[in-house]
């Protein structure tokens, strides 16, 4: 069954990986993409995420919701407001001084 549509292929692949980590099988479908990547305008390449087992739907949606509320892949690193350390986007607190990241 179709779960959702990803904004682009990179994010779609990222979601597939996230779901696979949770033990949910899914596939990335793209009806415009017939092995001709690069010849199609990017806005027509939005891939669709299809669940192999529809019983996974609720869990899958929760995982994707959480993924979208966090920093997107490729997000900029941030600087600790307390000690000035530069931190990767996936961290929510400074590893050096423990200060919690300020809201974006
Ligand atoms: Zn710090």
What does this protein structure show overall?
With 104 residues, this protein is of the alpha+beta class. It has 2 domains: 2-69, 2-Layer Sandwich (Alpha-Beta Plaits); 72-104, no CATH class. Helix content is 25%, strand content 15%. The protein contains 2 helices and 5 strands, in the order E-H-E-E-H-E-E. The strands form 2 sheets. A 3-stranded antiparallel β-sheet has the order 1-3-2, covered by helices on one side. Strands 4-5 form a two-stranded antiparallel sheet. Strand 4 and strand 5 form a beta hairpin. The longest helix is centred in the N-terminal third of the chain and has 13 residues, at 9-21. It starts with a strand and ends in a 17-residue tail after the last strand. The mean pLDDT is 83. Bound molecules: zinc ion. Residues 80, 82-83, 85, 94, 96-97, 99 line the site of zinc ion (ZN).
According to CATH, the fold-level topology of the largest domain is Alpha-Beta Plaits
- Proportion of residues in β-strands: 15-25%
| Poorly predicted residue ranges | none
N-to-C CA distance: 35 Å
Q: Could you say which small molecules are bound to this protein?
A: zinc ion
Number of domains: 2
Mean pLDDT: 83
Largest sheet: 3 strands, antiparallel
Helix percent band: 25-40%
> What is the count of DSSP helices, taking H or I runs of 4+ residues?
2
**CATH class term of the largest domain:** Alpha Beta
| Rg (CA only) | 17 Å
- How would you name the oligomeric state of the polypeptide chains in this document? single chain
């Amino acid at each position: 069954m179709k779960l959702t549509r990803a904004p682009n292929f990179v994010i779609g692949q990222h979601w597939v990986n996230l779901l696979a980590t949770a033990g949910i099988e899914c596939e990335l479908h793209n009806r415009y993409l017939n092995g001709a990547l690069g010849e199609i305008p990017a806005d027509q390449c939005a891939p669709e995420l299809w669940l192999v087992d529809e019983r996974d739907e609720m869990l899958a949606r929760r995982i994707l919701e959480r993924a979208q509320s966090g920093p997107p892949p490729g997000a900029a690193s941030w600087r600790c407001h307390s000690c000035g350390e530069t931190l990767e986007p996936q961290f929510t607190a400074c590893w050096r001084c423990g200060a919690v990241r300020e809201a974006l």
